C-alpha cells in the first residue's frame, strides 16, 4: 500500500528528518530549557501511546504496530493500571498503580539513540513483569532533575512510590538487552 497525498509528504519529511538526526546524533541538555536542542513538531505534541508519533516506514511496521494495539491500556485515559510487559506513556498515577518492575525511559524523538532503543523495545517486546514508561525528555524537566537525568536514553528503575532504585544510560548501547543486563538482573 503506497502513501497518498499529504501522508506521502509527511512520510518523506519524517524520513529526511530522521536521516538528519542520524548524522547529528544526540547530546545531553544541561541548559534546563531544551529550546536549543531542536524544535518541537506537530507530531510530538499529538503523541499518545508509543509509536503514534511515528510514520510507519513500510507495511510490516504498520502491521507490527497494529498487532501490538494500544499500549497505554486504552484511550480512555484515567488512572487504571498498566499491565506488566507493556511500553506506555508516563504518568505518575500510572506508575503508582502498575504492579511489577518499572522503568522510566527518558526519550526524545529527535535523538537517534532513543529511536533505536524504542525500535528495539518494540521489536523485542517488554519482558514479563516489567513496564517501561516513555517519558518525554524535553517536557519533563522537573522529573529529569528529580532523578538526576542529564542525557536522553537514560532508564530509571523506580519502586511503587516512584523512588529511584537505580539508573542506566543506554546511549552507547541503545538496546533492550543492555538495559535488562544493567537494571533487571
Summed up:
This protein has 185 residues and is an alpha/beta fold. The chain is 37% helix and 16% strand.
Verbal overview:
The structure is a single chain. The chain is an alpha/beta fold. It has a single domain, classed as Glutaredoxin. Helix content is 37%, strand content 16%. The protein is built from seven helices and five strands. The chain has helices spanning 5-24, 42-45, 59-68, 92-97, 112-124, 141-147, 176-183; strands at residues 86-89, 101-107, 130-136, 154-158, 164-169. It has a five-stranded mixed beta sheet, with helices on one face. A hairpin with a 5-residue loop joins β4 (154-158) and β5. It is globular. Residues 6-25 and 27-79 have low confidence and may be disordered.
What is the approximate shape?
A: globular
Q: Taking Cα atoms only, what radius of gyration do you get, to the nearest Å?
A: 16 Å
CATH first level: Alpha Beta
Helix content percent band:
25-40%
Describe this protein with a few key phrases.
single chain, 185 residues, alpha/beta, Glutaredoxin, 7 helices, globular
List the helices and strands and how they pair.
Layout (H helix, E strand, L loop, with lengths): L4 H20 L17 H4 L13 H10 L17 E4 L2 H6 L3 E7 L4 H13 L5 E7 L4 H7 L6 E5 L5 E6 L6 H8 L2
Parallel strand pairs: 1-3, 2-3
Antiparallel strand pairs: 2-4, 4-5
Amino acid at each position: 500500500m503506497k502513501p497518498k497525498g499529504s501522508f506521502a509528504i509527511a512520510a518523506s519529511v519524517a524520513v529526511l528528518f530522521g536521516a538528519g538526526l542520524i548524522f547529528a546524533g544526540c547530546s545531553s541538555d544541561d541548559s534546563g530549557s531544551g529550546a536549543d536542542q531542536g524544535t518541537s513538531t506537530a507530531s510530538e505534541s499529538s503523541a499518545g501511546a508509543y509509536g503514534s508519533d511515528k510514520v510507519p516506514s513500510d507495511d510490516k511496521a504498520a502491521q507490527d504496530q497494529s498487532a501490538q494495539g494500544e499500549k497505554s491500556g486504552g484511550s480512555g485515559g484515567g488512572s487504571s493500571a498498566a499491565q506488566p510487559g507493556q511500553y506506555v506513556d508516563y504518568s505518575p498515577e500510572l506508575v503508582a498503580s502498575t504492579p511489577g518492575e518499572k522503568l522510566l525511559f527518558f526519550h526524545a524523538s529527535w535523538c537517534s539513540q532513543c529511536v533505536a532503543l524504542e525500535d528495539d523495545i518494540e521489536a523485542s517486546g517488554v519482558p514479563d513483569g516489567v513496564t517501561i514508561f516513555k517519558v518525554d525528555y524535553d517536557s519533563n524537566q522537573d522529573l529529569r532533575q528529580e532523578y538526576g537525568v542529564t542525557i536522553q536514553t537514560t532508564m530509571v528503575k523506580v519502586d511503587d512510590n516512584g523512588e529511584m532504585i537505580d539508573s542506566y544510560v543506554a546511549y552507547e548501547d541503545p538496546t533492550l538487552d543492555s538495559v535488562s543486563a544493567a537494571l533487571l538482573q
